[in-house]
Specification:
The protein is mainly α. Helices cover 70% and strands 4% of the residues.
């Protein structure tokens, strides 16, 4: 019974890994056009578009694998062909020795399992550091954050599954009540959005992207989430200029940076955030971009299903 199940499992592993690799390369190559188009939408929408773009390859791989192994569903996507007198919809049929298919799938699956193990180890380390940080902090009397002693003003949202907000004692002493409200609103927005978990998922989903392109996507996503949380702080404070001044102060920028929106051509993340608060559109969306992404994804499903079926049958 076990030996009969191994070839289909091996086929599933090969299909998933192959489609994931090809889809990842496609999305990496096509990221610059998305990057340009998402510059015209709001920060929250830009972050969502980048997250969706990075997560689509593993989703496409899963859908294609499921379709290929269910011929009744994938028949419309696969060119009609026959094996002898059998022309009915069928799962991939290969004359290759089962041991060869299982061996190739074992190597590929082993690499995928190694990646999963590395992610699990990273999550365990993050959780352990979070427990240490929590043990060194104390809850604020009337707020939903933890206070930690430290000489440098700072505030962080830490954790994946149940993120916590931490604020240094020096920041509480340095900021006014209004400024502290802005900082907390920003960090609470990260907490609600689960930005740490989303970024971790994005980093895992783009593991096969070229290094420079992957770093650019993660950097763009981080900047977009920061800007989205800046707007959340504006909702709480009602004053975009105040939020811009707080960013300038915490980043050590001159006071003029808030009023000027940053120097022209500056690549500073803080200046970009300030400029976005004062000049960028807030609630714009881009249905055309979403339609283009949906069309590309459906094309990948169709092409991936047909190619995966054919490639497995060519293993002979």
């Amino acid at each position: 019974m076990m030996t009969e199940l191994l070839p289909p499992v091996a086929d599933a592993v090969l299909i998933w890994c192959g489609v994931f690799a090809l889809s990842s390369i496609t999305h990496a190559l096509l990221y610059p056009p998305l990057q340009r188009r998402s510059a015209a939408v709001s920060a929250a929408n830009a972050a969502d578009l980048r997250l969706l773009w990075g997560l689509l390859p593993p989703i496409a791989a899963s859908v294609v694998t499921w379709l290929v192994l269910n011929p009744a569903l994938s028949a419309p996507l696969i060119p009609v062909h026959c094996h002898g007198l059998n022309c009915a919809p069928h799962p991939p049929l290969s004359e290759a020795h089962p041991a060869l298919r299982v061996g190739v799938a074992a190597v590929t699956g082993g690499l995928a399992l190694a990646l999963c193990a590395a992610v699990a180890l990273l999550a365990w380390r993050v959780q352990r550091r979070l427990r240490t940080l929590f043990s060194l902090s104390r809850a604020a009397a009337t707020q939903r954050f933890q206070v930690i002693d430290g000489p440098t003003p700072g505030a962080w949202c830490v954790g994946w599954w149940r993120p916590q907000v931490y604020v240094s004692r020096s920041m509480l002493d340095a900021l006014s009540a209004r400024e502290l409200r802005v900082v907390l609103a920003h960090e609470y927005a990260h907490q609600r959005r689960r930005d740490n978990l989303r970024r971790a998922g994005l980093a895992i989903a783009t593991v096969l992207w070229p290094k420079n392109r992957r770093q650019q996507l993660l950097s763009d996503y981080h900047t977009a989430t920061e800007m989205a949380c800046d707007w959340a702080a504006v909702d709480v404070s009602g004053d975009a200029d105040l939020v811009a001044r707080v960013i300038a102060r915490l980043e050590g920028l001159p006071a003029s940076a808030a009023s000027e929106g940053g120097a022209t051509g500056s690549v500073s993340a803080a200046r970009s955030r300030i400029k976005a608060l004062l000049t960028a559109p807030r609630n714009t969306a881009s249905p055309q971009v979403l339609l283009a992404i949906a069309g590309l994804w459906l094309l990948q499903i169709w092409a991936g299903t047909a190619l995966a079926h054919a490639c497995i049958e060519l293993l002979s």
